[in-house]
TrEMBL record:
Domain of life: Bacteria
Organism: Nocardia macrotermitis
Recorded GO MF terms: arylformamidase activity
Any Pfam family matching the protein: Cyclase
Protein name listed in UniProt: Cyclase
GO biological process per UniProt: L-tryptophan catabolic process to kynurenine
């Protein structure tokens, strides 16, 4: 049964039922490390290249700097950027290079999920199990994710991107309020309003704009990192599975609606989507400029490349997604 109505008092039951309905364990073999990225095959990727009409490109990344949204939850901080060599050093002649050569170098320290990023398949567990039913303690150890590390997806995340501007279609002034749960019906309404170029196909990378980032950019970060937010309803678990999309990303910190829809819960849709469906989730993406261009000409699909950094054993990665229209 698809849970259009939730029993808010029974998160355990709802999560277990959804996981049983949508599990992809074993679908691509016991050794699979790519989950729903298997839907994004070579032919799907080749066809997506034909979506480029104007050549105009859009970065869907927020900035990586000290002015970011993080507030220290679970030791997540904003990036700390430090210069190791500078023009000041060069002019002062203290770098030790011959014949007038000077240079600059720098270093950055940051959690891998402090700004625009992918959740990898080792990021979330369900009752001690990681993606494909593997015991979590055999997948992610102090050495990192030894099986589904983000590097396994480094060369596959490019294909047809589709923007669902739910904030513009459903919200007031282009924004959904915090706590707004986006249902399958809202997604269908958005597709219908936007037209045929936003119809969802197998292997798509779906980008959902709620408008929360627009609000944070205007009013200040507030509780953007971890606080109330619009997002996907738990009831979309079946849609995420049945559409056979490769990945989904939003302009919010946590992808799903916050507060979550159960009386006692923390990110229940993550618990179903990542370890059971094998779905890649992107968070804190910035689709605003892209959304304006899509609205102007009525085309909502595009070629999208969003490769994670090849960080061995990481359970997530910063990313600079680029949409080309």
């Amino acid at each position: 049964m698809r849970p259009e109505e939730l029993d808010r008092t029974d998160p355990e039951g709802a999560i277990a039922a959804a996981a049983a309905r949508v599990s992809n364990w074993g679908r691509w073999g016991e050794d699979d490390v790519l989950g729903t990225m298997n839907f994004l095959d070579d032919e799907t990727r080749r066809a997506a290249a034909g979506l480029v009409r104007t050549g105009r490109s859009f970065s869907l990344s927020q900035s990586f700097d000290m002015d970011g949204p993080q507030r220290g939850w679970r030791r997540r901080t904003n990036p700390v950027h430090t210069m190791l060599d500078t023009g000041t050093d060069a002019v002062a002649g203290i770098q030790g290079f011959p014949h007038g050569l000077g240079g600059a170098d720098d270093v950055i320290a940051m959690p891998l999920q402090c700004s625009t990023q992918w959740d990898g398949l080792g990021h979330i567990f369900d009752h001690g199990h990681a993606w494909n039913g593997r015991p979590a303690d055999r997948v992610v150890t102090s050495e990192g994710d030894r099986i589904t590390g983000i590097e396994t997806a480094a060369d596959v995340i490019c294909g047809r991107g589709v923007l669902l501007d739910v904030g513009r279609v459903i919200g007031e002034s282009g924004e959904l309020p915090d706590g707004f749960a986006i249902t399958e019906a809202h997604l269908a309404q958005t597709v219908a309003a936007q037209g045929s170029t936003s119809e969802i196909r197998r292997g798509d990378i779906v980008v959902v704009r709620t408008g929360q980032l627009s609000r944070a950019r205007r009013d200040g970060w507030g509780e953007y990192a971890g606080g109330p937010a619009p997002g996907l309803s738990f009831t979309t678990a079946d849609w995420l599975h049945d559409t056979e999309i490769a990945a989904i990303a939003t302009d919010t910190w946590g992808f799903e609606v916050r507060p979550n829809e159960f009386d006692v819960a923390f990110q229940p849709l993550h618990q179903v989507a990542i370890p059971n469906i094998g779905l890649f989730i992107g968070e804190m993406w910035d689709p605003d400029a892209l959304a304006a261009a899509c609205h102007d000409d009525g085309h909502y699909d595009f070629f999208l490349t969003a490769a994670p950094i090849r960080i061995t054993g990481a359970v997530g990665s910063p990313v600079n997604p680029v949409a080309v229209r």
